[in-house]
Specification:
With about 150 residues, this protein is an alpha+beta fold. The protein is built from three helices and seven strands. The longest helix has 15 residues, at about 10-25.
Length: about 150
């Protein structure tokens, strides 16, 4: 199987759309060179992209894990109306200290209130990369929020 590499140096939604378009081109039937490759190639014909953001400081909950205390948030994407499981790209923004966290791009299925269905939302879990305790009050005072882009 051939290895294809494409590097893009764009940011934000425009960059994400360029990546999706690039994947569509790289995985198009014209780029498939064998029947075996055709079985594993994904074709993105017309992606549907929706983006959103949580309210700054709101919705964070405490969790205690084996790797230290942290916080989590569930993001409801029901209003996006996804009919297939989307690919989510996430980040955390805020006024300060969000550069010291880890976990912002790791997406987990939502809880039972959203049916555990990634078409309806997702969760992310955060902790400080140095292991220090973190709690919802710090997220509130720092104005942390989740940016997300979903493509199906």
């Amino acid at each position: 199987m051939r290895t294809k590499t494409k590097t893009l140096s764009m940011c934000g939604v425009a960059g994400f759309l360029a990546i999706v378009a690039s994947l569509a081109l790289w995985n198009s039937p014209a780029a498939i060179s064998s029947p075996a490759e055709a079985k594993t190639a994904a074709v993105v014909v017309s992606p549907r992209v929706v983006a959103g953001q949580t309210y700054p400081g709101g919705g964070w909950q405490t969790y205690t894990g084996t790797d230290g205390p942290g916080i989590w948030i569930q993001v409801d994407t029901t209003s996006a109306g996804f009919t297939r499981t989307p690919t989510y790209v996430t980040s955390v923004g805020g006024n300060f200290w969000h550069w010291r966290i880890t976990g912002a791009s790791s997406v987990y299925p939502p809880d039972a209130t959203l049916g555990g269905d990634l078409r309806r939302g997702f969760r992310i879990y955060l902790r400080f990369s140095d292991g220090r305790a973190i709690d919802p009050v710090q997220a509130l005072n720092s104005g942390w929020y989740v940016n997300w882009i979903g493509a199906e």
